[in-house]
Design brief:
Length: 219
């Protein structure tokens, strides 16, 4: 399995502070294997597993996007405008900002009417969100526990960015143990997700084969 569809360098991870965790006072014991040490009061993540986890996640996003599957990104930081700008360019990526609305997935047929209303008023990134996603990406886990539970109940693959004070390794299909609270890290994740979605759209176009019918090519 090739994971080099979207290139990631160690310099990029260091530049956006992906290696910096939370205060070691609130360290979760199950996150210790992913750490290389401490710097002052903060935990330092090992970038080698973080890099591999990111590549595996981006590989999945590219494949799902190439098969016209929707991907839902959840982020409760409304200040991260760069993440919104990145995802607004893609056709398969959708963004939920703010706190999670209970029943958004488990009661999707009813909530869909609400999302149509909200998409016109506040969140244009949910305008064309008409079916359950093929992948859920939670960039902030501390306030989206209900969303994680709904994804688990519906057997939707989960990709969760979990920090050093919160653990979802045993409940997540694609865990991403790294920094997930800074605006720099969120913009970095948004850029990577957008690049993977764009790569998937390119592969989708390459997969389309023209069929000749009655003297014309029909796609």
């Amino acid at each position: 399995m090739k994971l080099n569809l979207v290139k990631i360098t160690t310099q990029e991870l260091l530049r956006y502070g992906i290696h910096i965790g939370y205060n070691k006072q609130y360290l979760n014991s199950q996150i210790k294997p992913y750490l290389v040490g401490f710097r002052g009061q903060f935990n330092i993540f090992n970038l080698k597993p973080v890099k591999y986890q990111l590549k595996a996640l981006l590989y999945l996003i590219t494949n799902l996007s190439s098969w016209r599957q929707s991907i839902l990104v959840v982020n409760h930081y409304k200040e991260s405008l760069s993440l919104r700008k990145c995802l607004i360019k893609s056709k398969r990526g959708y963004l939920v900002e703010g706190f999670w609305l209970g029943g958004f997935l488990t009661n999707f047929k009813t909530i869909r009417l609400y999302t149509d209303y909200m998409s016109q008023k506040k969140n244009p990134l949910l305008k064309n969100f008409k079916s359950l996603p093929a992948l859920l990406i939670f960039l902030n886990t501390t306030t989206d526990n209900w969303g994680v539970r709904e994804g688990l109940n519906l057997n939707i693959p989960l990709a969760v960015a979990t920090g050093s004070n919160y653990n979802l390794l045993s409940r997540t299909v694609y865990p991403l143990v790294s920094s997930n609270e800074t605006t720099e890290a969120l913009s970095f994740y948004g850029n990577l997700i957008t690049r993977a979605l764009q790569r998937g759209s390119y592969r989708e176009k390459e997969r389309v084969i023209p069929v000749r019918r009655k003297g014309r090519y029909k796609y």
